[in-house]
């Protein structure tokens, strides 16, 4: 569905050098990125601000032309076949709307139908389906400018999907949404992928979106693909220490177990920090040998913590060896 091979995108930046003199320099936003996305996949694209995510998405949708390397989406070269590609893909930018501000949502969607030349009967059926799934009914006749952010986002999703695209590209679709709207949008995307088989590429800073929706995540950092694989592997490779919360039969001094540090003691409860290399079963056995243990819980680092460590460059894995994807690109 998507094939990106060794893609580089540089921008020419003009900088002041003295009072009047300007110098032109080349700045690389994307530096040799390669990946494929197979039909029916749901992939999350993560990365700190300025990492190159939007530049990558813009190359996939044909808004930008790569400086070098090749991009193929649905078998087409996006920069040269933008219109043909638009018929087969849907794009939603969370910060911008494609709807007509002054028109009621229903009329905006009717205009989208004309743009994509969707047949009237197919449009009616599709609109009815999207209205039910996205709960658009109560505000279909409201002008777009009067819609709340969550309602507008649902309208934008409907607009991007009216022509039943094979691929949906989303840039921050849940930004600024409250928990209920987020849940509606996430639930909708999940069904779209599972039931319709729509391939989805989702860019977000919201790790809740990724955890809930994406079996595969790609992390772009300083223009390079730093990770490509599942969240569990990311947690295992880049995750920080695990924490063992132990409740002893009675309060006491910090326990002594080789290779483990006690972070906190509160009455009979103690928080033990385990480095990634420590074997939790051995630690528990050592503890049980010398203490009466009432309860025990092992806490993995939260995905926020894992990703923050990555962004800060504290990763333990070596980038540059992204996971092989089994699905073939087309
Ligand atoms: N038109 C442009 N001209 C010059 N530099 C640009 C242009 N567009 C992007 N850049 C630079 O390229 C780099 C990558 O930007 P990009 O917008 O792709 O990042 P991003 O990962 O989407 O960030 P964010 O999470 O903040 O949206 C940044 O350093 C940015 O300043």
Rg (C-alpha, Å): 24 Å
CATH topology (fold) name of the largest domain: Rossmann fold
Any idea how many domains?
2
Helicity level, as a percent range? 25-40%
Bound molecules: adenosine-5'-triphosphate
Provide a count of the helices: 10
Widest β-sheet, arrangement of strands: 5-6-7-3-8-9
Membrane topology: Peripheral membrane protein
InterPro entries: AAA+_ATPase, ABC_transporter-like_ATP-bd, ABC_transporter_ATP-binding, P-loop_NTPase
Protein name: Vitamin B12 import ATP-binding protein BtuD
Keywords: Antibiotic resistance, ATP-binding, Nucleotide-binding, Transport
Describe this structure in words.
Residues 2-247 form the ABC transporter domain. This protein is α/β, with parallel strands linked by helices. The chain has 2 domains: 38-57 and 77-236, P-loop containing nucleotide triphosphate hydrolases (Rossmann fold), CATH 3.40.50; 241-300. 32% of the residues lie in helices and 29% in strands. It contains 10 helices and 13 strands. The strands form 3 sheets. The protein has a 6-stranded mixed β-sheet, with helices on both faces. A 4-stranded antiparallel β-sheet has the order 11-12-10-13, with helices on one face. A 3-stranded antiparallel β-sheet has the order 2-1-4, covered by helices on one side. The site of adenosine-5'-triphosphate (ATP) has 12 residues, from strand 1, strand 2 and helix 1. Adenosine-5'-triphosphate is lined by residues 11, 13, 27, 29, 47, 49-55.
Topology, please?
Blueprint: E1 2-16, E2 22-37, E3 42-46, H1 53-60, E4 68-73, H2 82-86, E5 89-93, H3 105-115, H4 120-133, H5 149-161, E6 167-171, H6 179-196, E7 199-203, H7 207-213, E8 216-221, E9 224-229, H8 231-238, E10 242-248, E11 261-266, E12 269-274, H9 280-290, E13 293-299, H10 303-311
Parallel strand pairs: 3-7, 3-8, 5-6, 6-7
Antiparallel strand pairs: 1-2, 1-4, 8-9, 10-12, 10-13, 11-12
Helix pairs in contact: 8-10
